[in-house]
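Issue 218. Parser rejects a valid record. Input:
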Amino acid sequence: MEPQRLERDEVAAAMAARRELGPQYELELAESLVDRVNAVIDARLAAQPVNRRPGPDWAQMALGLGSLALSVPLTAIVASTTSRTAPLLLVFALVAAVNLAYAVSKAGARRRD
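Output the parser choked on:
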């Protein structure tokens, strides 16, 4: 098991070894101490729970904004050509279906991960 704490006497021992062995072993001693510090850091990071929120879904945002950008002119075209509400409902139903299909596919992909 990895150590959870680097004790002061371990660092002091490394410094004493450097004094005894001389400067020719300085690089090896420094690398050994760095490896110990990295092991302690890695053990601490592994012990912490990962509570990261997923970042924003830019594809979903682009799809929503694109749907809005397309639904405005489509609504204007349909409203100018007919006075019936069924074509307008069809436009909104198609936009909603595309967005819903994307949301369902993303939810399925998250469940598999």
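Fixed in the parser; the record now loads. Helices lie at 8-21, 26-47, 58-81, 86-112.
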